[in-house]
Design a protein that fits this description.
The protein is mainly beta and about 550 residues long. Helix content is about 5%, strand content about 60%. It starts with a helix and ends with a strand.
Length: about 550
């Protein structure tokens, strides 16, 4: 089949699909159907004096994308996507990634793939394949779920992946009260790996088991002070093949929930946040958390443990909210039980001020400081560094020379100061970033946008500088149905040598109806590498695209 014939078939099939779908679902009782469709044809050509250059696109290609969502009686949401292209036809987001969460008043039911959150220490970042429910009758909160939290994945030594066991997970939530008022919620999760789901060897991971329970609460004492927090305990077995613990001193837990083993550990965690708001113009938030080194909840795969942290974050609004001052200061420690070779202390501070000096003049200033220090006895492994960042961003809107102007600038400075005498040679760096953007708007829709971006990175062995200049002119015609823009730009990146790039872009968008438009673009990209002889061929490439977009 030729490319042109395939393009024709794609467009006919998708057009028929769009028409049939619109007729079948639009305004049908209890059923709504909405989404977006894209149909496009792309032409591409490129050239290079280097024989190692390979074009990045075929000379002629076409694609169609159909994204939609079916809503049944405002209870069931069914999203799906169809993708067709000359490189192959397929149905994206297959039904093994399908999920529904219909709502029936105060009851929500989950089926298939779904995500939800119970609390910050119990369950939240795992996407489940299974079923569950969330019931909120009045002020009562009842929820439960069960399913597969992780599918088995075989070892792949080509990417250094050692494999993963299939993991099932169950969770419950029982509570009373709304989270913006008084509330108390009990949460529990139980997870276990299926040891038979993966072929193992001496390098394979160990199958695990986890049981965690938490109590989170909120206490708004008055209109001035509110507090919320959570405490939890977790039992975790690092290897479910290790022998079971026996004896009178071993906690008695139902075996289907958790089996204490020689590889098991138990630990706790707590979080507390206090907000003090004496007025609408200023407040102070106090945050603290302690997460023991053995606290693990497999409902939060990314949860960090071995942490003791406290922060204070004041915020003040002055001069009728025209001046905002906001800061944060915190300290974090680890190695809470001296189970590591050294301890680290992290100091994090930040400050932000945003000032509306005049109605058309504003200024933002931000500073952050991040310090890390370890107490390792070995000088070569001791860590002590400070990362600082300062940014200043003024903005100004004014009228002059018969036009409206919007001018914004930004300067940012970043530094990494490594105090280790052995590693500082390779890690110390200073970075400066400058930007200036000016937009000139003429009546009725003619505008000019000029921009300059400059970056300089200085390290011990290598300095890098980059500059980007661009100009965009846009205007509207035919009662604003047609918008045309033209962009030209030049940039360079300078290290050992200097790479140069020149780009151009012409774009025209025509609004056919209130829900559809036709977009035509032409792009050119000329890139010259300073080190072309070392495997980076300089090239010239041109691309034209015609796209039809329909929203329904």
């Amino acid at each position: 089949m030729t490319t042109c014939a395939l393009i024709t078939k794609i467009f006919i099939a998708l057009t028929v699909l769009l028409l049939c779908s619109s007729i079948a679902f639009t305004q049908e009782s209890g059923i709504t159907f909405h989404g977006v469709a894209y149909l496009s044809v792309d032409g591409y050509t490129s050239s290079s004096q280097d024989s190692s250059w390979k074009p990045r696109m075929p000379p002629l290609s076409a694609r169609g994308i159909f994204k939609a969502n079916i809503s049944l009686y405002d209870k069931v949401e069914i999203p799906f996507e169809i993708y067709a292209a000359t490189s192959g036809l397929g149905f994206q987001q297959p039904f093994n990634q399908f999920g529904m969460s219909p709502r029936f008043g105060w009851l929500t039911v989950h089926a298939g793939y779904f995500s939800t959150k119970y609390s910050e220490l119990s369950f939240g970042d795992v996407r489940m394949l299974g079923g569950g429910f969330e019931a909120n009758p009045g002020k009562f909160r009842i929820a439960g779920l069960y399913g597969i939290a992780r599918q088995a994945r075989a070892k792949d030594t080509t990417v250094g992946f050692l494999g993963e066991f299939k993991r099932t997970l169950a969770a419950i939530k029982l509570g009373y009260g709304d989270e913006n008022e008084y509330f108390v919620h009990f949460n529990a999760i139980q997870a276990v790996d299926d040891a038979s789901s993966l072929s193992v060897d001496s390098t394979s991971p160990l199958p695990t088991q986890n049981l965690a329970a938490t109590l989170n609460f909120g206490l708004p004492f008055s209109g001035i002070v509110s507090m919320n927090g959570e405490v939890g305990v977790s039992a975790f077995s690092n290897d479910i093949h290790s022998p079971e613990l026996t004896g009178d001193n071993i906690p008695k837990v139902p075996s289907f929930l958790f089996t204490p083993r020689y590889s098991s550990q138990i630990d706790g965690a707590a979080k507390l946040s206090i907000l003090i708001s004496p007025s609408s113009f200023w407040n102070v938030r106090l945050n603290s958390q302690w997460i023991g080194p053995g606290y693990i909840s497999l409902g939060y795969v990314q949860l960090q443990n071995d942490i003791l942290e406290g922060t204070i974050a004041p915020s003040v609004r002055l001069f009728e909210s025209k001046l905002l001052l906001r800061g944060s200061f915190g300290i974090r420690y680890n190695n809470l039980r001296n189970t590591r070779l050294s301890s680290t202390r992290r100091v994090i501070g930040s400050f932000l001020t945003s000032a509306q000096i005049l109605d058309n003049l504003g200024l933002d200033i931000q500073y952050s400081n991040y310090g890390l220090r370890s107490t390792h006895l070995n000088d070569t492994m001791r860590v002590q560094n400070i990362f600082q960042m300062l940014s200043v961003s003024p903005r100004w809107n004014f009228t002059g020379w018969g036009a409206n102007h919007a001018l914004s600038a930004s300067f940012a400075y970043q530094s990494m100061d490594d105090k280790n005498i052995f590693t500082s040679v390779s890690t110390n760096s200073n970075t400066s970033l400058w930007s200036l953007v000016h937009t000139l708007s003429l009546e009725p829709m003619l505008s000019f946008t000029s921009s300059v971006f400059y970056t300089a990175i200085y390290t011990t062995f290598l300095n890098t500088k980059a500059l980007n200049l661009s100009e965009t002119v846009s205007n509207s015609y035919l009662e604003n149905k047609l918008t045309v823009s033209l962009t030209g730009g030049y940039s360079f990146v300078q290290t050992i040598g200097q790479d140069n790039q020149v780009i151009g872009r012409l774009s025209a968008a025509y609004q056919l109806t209130a829900s559809s438009q036709l977009i035509f673009t032409v792009n050119s990209n000329n890139y010259d590498y300073a080190q072309a002889v070392s495997g980076n061929p300089s090239f010239r490439e041109y691309q034209a695209s015609l796209q039809y977009q329909l929203t329904f």
